[in-house]
Known about the structure:
Number of helices: 5
Bound molecules: flavin mononucleotide
Order of helices and strands: EHEEEHHEHEEEH
Distance between the termini: 13 Å
Strand content: 15-25%
Structural class: alpha/beta
Number of strands: 8
Amino acid sequence: MSTTILVAYATRYGSTQEVAEHVAAVLLEAGHPVAIHPAGDVRSLEEFDAVVLGAPIYMGNWHRNARRFLSRHQTALTQRPVAVFALGPLERDEEQMREAIGQFEKILAKTPWLDPVDKEVFVGKFDPDKLTFPHNLLPLGDALPEGDNRDWEAIRGWAGELPARLQA
Ligand SMILES: Cc1cc2nc3c(=O)[nH]c(=O)nc-3n(C[C@H](O)[C@H](O)[C@H](O)COP(=O)(O)O)c2cc1C
């Protein structure tokens, strides 16, 4: 039987939304009914058998709407398989990836009741010209590498493994 999956995402500048859309497309191709929604718009998880939640890391925190999603739907999330992903590091660099994974582990440790069937960190995107308040006041231009280094192959690969994990 196919699993009805919700892909919920939070985003500030759109890069996580595009990754969520990609994940949803892979799940759909695998034959699963999929709905994709901003995490903040989801009122109930009743119609879904499994959930994928993705959001970017900002200053060591997961996007606020992802954190709110977890607290709002805590009970329902303990009753279904959940997979989570974060966008963060801006280059395909081992050290940056290790750091972001460490941040994501700390983030997830704040919700010990959540036992994801899978968790992953993907490389993100940074466009200094698109920053809005208060990010546009930060001296980030030099601190963060500009560019889109998202690894679509890695994202596709992870999404391809999800149906088996979400059914387990
Ligand atoms: C102000 C700012 C702070 C950030 N802080 C972190 C961070 O603490 N850890 C991390 O891994 N990535 C960090 N990033 C990178 C973002 O997570 C990355 O750009 C992501 O792709 C943004 O997702 P969005 O386009 O969906 O908003 C930061 C980016 C900005 C602009």
